[in-house]
Amino acid sequence: MTIDLDSLAAQVERPDDDARGRVREHLGALTGAPNSYGRLEDLAIWFASTQGGKAGTIAPIAAPRVVLFAADHGIAAHDVSVRHAGWTAREVRATLDGGSPTATFAAALDAPIRIVDIAVDAEPDAFPEHVSRDRIRRASAAIDTADALAPGEAERAFQVGMDTADAEIDSGADVLLLGSVGAAATTPAAVLIGALTGMDAAAVIGRGSGIDDATWIRKCAAIRDSLRRARPVLGDPMRLLGVSGGADFAAMTGFLLRCSIRRTPVLLDDVSTAAAALVAQRISYRAPDWWLAGHVTPEPGHVKSLDRLALEPVLDYRVRGGEGLGALLALPVLRAAVDLVARVHPTP
Fold first, then answer.
1. pTM
2. 64-331 topology per CATH
3. Residues 151 and 169: beta-carbon distance below 8 Å
4. Is-same-fold flag (5-59+338-342; 64-331)?
5. How far, CA to CA in Å, does 107 sit from each of 66, 191, 286, 295, 327?
6. Mean pLDDT, residues 316-326
7. pLDDT tens digits, residue range 246-271?
8. What architecture is domain 5-59+338-342?
């Protein structure tokens, strides 16, 4: 499978500037003073620009959807995370059963979840068919000594990401929340971010899932060795995903790029989604205009990547975990901002 990244990049357009102007006027008319609602105004203006249209207002957010790409990573065998073998599969099952924090928050916010098992290290029948039908492989290889994916697998995962975006948008989603589920995922995320921003191993990583000093040292060494393998392929985003990312990162990159092409806003979650966003930005510099950072984690690489993407996080609650939690926490804030325009009108 060959994917023409240049052709995809050419399809990404900028959001609607006219819609921005109309919403600015509406917000100013509410109080007669600019910036009365602070960051809420920025969020409302951004969302309006992604909706476009001719009307002077925008519709409330009615159909948010959460998409989680689940995968295991071979680097976990180097003991770089407090989450060990089997954690990813258990978290997927808990979410499917409605018992995980992500499932609980999503239900409260009326945001259905789609989980895509793209590379979980589990038996083929571990999850329902609709969850695992697009699995590329069982876990990635350890990226400090081998390529994460075999030839062609990055392209396949990238296509799954695009197809998933199309399915959600075609079913009526008006905003998508992107997250990932995977033990040790912050390690390949740190490698991608380090390679794309020029940060070294010690600067790009934090405590991830809550690791101790000894684990941090092992993780730092693994990232150092992985960065040596990543830097020679920086000029080829797909190759970079195959060497230093994994199936989940390739799928998230395809998902983000396709959402930008389809003019659909995305709420980013943790450092893994930010790493995929950086790769997508390499493909199309316009793509980040369609994304919003739900929150920022304590990971130094996350802070750096959002700065490179020119995205200001909605929240900073020091939430370390991924699984879409940060994006879900930001959703009510975005909804409130949109409602200022969609439901509140100036007094005659």
1. 0.96
2. Rossmann fold (3.40.50)
3. no
4. no
5. 11, 34, 33, 20, 14
6. 92
7. 999 999 999 999 999 999 999 999 99
8. Orthogonal Bundle (1.10)
227, 204 Cβ separation under 8 angstroms: no
Domain ranges of the chain: 5-59+338-342, 64-331
Active site residues: 323
Residue 11's identity, in one-letter code, is Q
Kindly provide the residue ranges of all beta strands, DSSP E only, lying in the chain, ordered along the sequence: 64-71, 113-119, 175-181, 266-268, 291-293
What confidence category does residue 25 fall into, taking pLDDT thresholds of 50, 70 and 90? confident
Identify the CA nearest to 184 among candidates 91, 48, 59, 312.
91
DSSP codes joined into one string, 259-302 = HHHTT--EEE-SHHHHHHHHHHHHH-TTGGGGEEE-B--S-HHH
133 backbone dihedrals φ, ψ, rounded to 5°: -65, -20
CA angle, residues 99, 103, 104, in degrees to nearest 5 = 75
Helix (H) or strand (E) holding 96, with range, is helix 87-96
3-class secondary-structure state, position 228: helix
- Count CB atoms within 10 A of the CB of residue 189: 35
Give the pLDDT of residue 208: 63
Three-state DSSP class for residue 346: coil
Q: How confident is the model at residue 345 (pLDDT cuts 50, 70, 90)?
A: confident
DSSP assignment, residue 74? G
Pairing of strands 64-71, 175-181: parallel
User: Does the pLDDT value for residue 1 go beyond 90?
Assistant: no
Average pLDDT over the chain, rounded to an integer: 94
Tokens 């992604």 appear where? Answer: 50
Q: Over range 217-228, report the average pLDDT.
A: 94
- Per-residue pLDDT, averaged over 156-181, amounts to 98
Structure-block tokens of residue 303: 């802070």
Q: Which two tokens stand for residue 172?
A: 């009526």
70 SS3 class: strand
CA distance 129 to 146: 30
Residues in CB range of 295: below 8 A, 6 or more apart: 269, 270, 313, 314, 315, 316, 317, 319, 326, 327, 329, 330
Q: What would the pLDDT profile of 97-113 be if each residue is shown by its tens digit?
A: 999 999 999 999 999 99
